[in-house]
Amino acid sequence: MSPTTDPRPLAGLRVVELSSFVASPLCGLTLSQLGAEVIRVDPVGGAADVHRLPVAPDGTSIYWTGLNRGKASVTLDLRSEDGRRALRELVCAPGEGGGILVTNSGGRDWMSHE
Question: What global pTM score does this model have?
Fold first, then answer.
């Protein structure tokens, strides 16, 4: 569905999610279910919770899969300037729904509220 035909209240809103474990991924899932486009950012090698128990036969966490359904995803190396630049571009992209970051990651010297 396009945002113009999607009746959900957050249709057209873009959210970038940089998170792991429960609270923040659940927030992203809820926003996605309400119609937002949620783009999950994972580190190179996978998220910290991708193999958390219980796991499917392929080793992927059932818990992780459930909390991240309905989201787009991108892998970025946030230890590199290119990865940090790409994250800033995702969060600050122009458009009606841009500029929202959901995270439960601790602040870094390169990431501020500004």
Answer: 0.86
